[in-house]
Amino acid sequence: MEKRMLVALTLSLGVLFVFQFFYKPPTRHGLQHNVPQATTGKTQAAMPAAAIKSTERDTKIVQQEQTIQTQTTTVDTEKYHAVFSNEGAVLQTLDSREFKQNNGKDEPLIVVSPVGEESFSMEVGGVDLAKKVYKIVRQGKNGIEYQTQNPVGVSISKEYVFPENKEGFSLIVKIKNDSAEERTVSYSLITPIVGNESEHMGGQTYKEVVMKIDEEKIKKNSAKGIWAKIGNISWTGMKNKYFSAIVKTPAIIEKASVTGEGQNIVPSVTTKERVLQPGQEIKDEYLIYAGPNDDKRIKETGFGLENIADYGWFGGISKLIIQILHICYNVVKNWGVAIIILTALINLLLFPLTMKSFVSMHQMKQIQPHMQKLKEVHKDNPQKMNKEMMELYKKYNINPLGGCLPIILQMPIFVALYQGLMQSIELRGAHFLWIKNLAMPDAIPLPGTLPLVGNHLNLLPIIMSVLMVVQQKISMGNTKDMSEEQAMQQKMMLIMMPILFGFIFYNMPSGLVLYWLANTILMTGEQWFLSKRLATQQK
Question: Once rounded to an integer, what is the mean pLDDT over residues 313-337?
Fold first, then answer.
C-alpha cells in the first residue's frame, strides 16, 4: 500500500479512537455539582430533600406497625419477567424474554437490576420509603399495585402496568392527603438502573445516564457527589452498549440527578411542590421503555423517546448503513454474510475513488526517477526544487494529493460504519462460521494458556494482517526505480502496518474485523486488477 494511503488510514483509526474515548455531546449544566452530603449507607443524591409542610398536630399522628412480611411478586408477560418487592414497592429485576445473556449459558438477559439502590425507590417529604412495607391492593397478569401510608397522613400508591405485546410499561404514582390539613408535597424517585453487561472494549464501559433536558441531550457516566439539573425534563434513564431503561417523565418533574460512577451510577428525578387539600389526590404517570437501543423499537412504543441511540458525528450515515445491512440480512438470513455483502456494496460505491487514488499513486511511481534526480540536483536550493517538482506534476498532469484525498473522503464512512456495527443489537449473539458472537472477538479456545495470548486466540485479526501483507506487496509493485531510502521505507511499512492494524483490531468485535477483512480482500483484488490494466496500457 502506498505510504500516504497507509498514513491516511492510520489517521482515520486515530480519529476513530479519539472520538470513541473523548467525544461527548455538548451540554449546558444549569445546576452544578452540589456538595456531597453525609450518608448513612443510602445514596443521598438520589434522594434530594423534599417537603411536606405539616402542623404540630401532624407530629402526633402515629402509624401502626404493619405486620405484612417482606415478599417478592413476579409478573410475567410476553416481553418480560419482572420481580417486585413489597419493601419499597420497587422493581427488583426485569428480565427480557427475547434476549439472552452474552455468556453462552442461555440465561435470560437482565435489563434492569439493582446497584445499591432499587429501581423506583421513593422518598416523600424527607421520609425514605425504601424500606417501607407496602400492601398489594391489585395483582393481575398485566401488572401490580402497591399502597402504603406515611407518618404524616399521606397515602402513596404505586401501580405498574404492562400492556400486551408492547416493549415497555408504565408506573402510576398516586399521593392522597388523608389528613384534615393541607399538605405541600414533593417526592423523589430513582429511575430504572440497567443491568451490567460485561461487553466493553479497552476497559471503557458503555454504561451511562442519558437525559433530555430543555431539548438538549445530556450524558453522564459519573458524578462527584451529586450532579443535578433543573429544567424541562423530557426523559431520563440509563443505557449500556445495547440496552436502555428510559423513562418519559410527567410535566411535574423539575429536576434530574445523578450520583456515583462506573457500574454504580444512580439516576433519579424530583417533582415540584404541590399543595394537597384534605382528601385531594394527585396522579403522575411514568412511561418506561426497557429494551434494545433500537430507534425503530423505541419509536413504536409511542412514548416519544427519540434518538436514544447515539452514533456520533456521522450518525446519519451510520443509520443508513445499518438499514442497508438489514436489507442484506433479509436476503441471506445470516449477519456475517450480510456484512460481507455490505462491504462489497460499499467498495462498489467507492470504486471510482479507489481507482482514481491507485492511478494517481501509479503515476507518482512513474516519475520517481525524475523526482529523485531533481532532489539531487537542487538539494541546496529547496525553493528551486519545489518549483521544478510542480512543473513536473504539471507536465505529466499529476495531482500530488490524488492518492491521498479519496482515502480521506472515505474516513466518514469508516467511522460511521464503526459506530453502527459497534452498537448494532443484531450482531449480538449472531453466528458466522466458527464465530459464536459477531459483537465480540471470535476467541477460539486453546488447549492451554500461552504467554501474551491467554487461553484463546482471535483468529480473524491474524488472517486480516496476513492479507494486508499481500495487499501491500501488490500496491508496492516494483521497487527497482526507488531510492534505497524509499525501498527501505516500503519494506518497513510492509512489516509494521499489518502488525499495527492486527494489534488495533485484535480485541475488536468480530463483525467489525470481518468487514475490514472482506474489505482487504476486495481491495487486494481491485489493486491487482488495476495493476494489470495499467501495465497493459503501458506496453
Answer: 87
Question: Are 108 and 97 within 8 A, CB to CB?
Answer: yes
Amino acid (one-letter) located at 57: R
Residue of 210, 212, 259, 202 whose CA lies nearest to 232: 212
As a whole number, the mean pLDDT across the chain is 76
What grid cell was written down for 411?
474516513
User: Which residue type is seen at 502?
Assistant: G
Three-state SS string over 217-238 comes to EEEECEEEEEEEEECCEEEEEE
Distance CA 254, CA 67 (A): 36
Q: Which residues contact 495 (CB under 8 A, 6 or more apart)?
A: none
Least confident of 163-172, 217-226, 454-463: 217-226
Grid coordinates given for 138 = 391489585
* Element holding 27 (H helix, E strand): none
pTM for the structure as a whole: 0.71
What distance in Å separates the CA atoms of residue 104 and residue 108, rounded to the nearest whole number? 11
Q: Cα separation of 407 and 353, whole Å?
A: 8
DSSP line for 120-163: T-EEETTEE-TTPBPEEEEEETTEEEEEEE-TTSEEEEEEEE--
Helices (DSSP H) in 73-153: which residue ranges? none
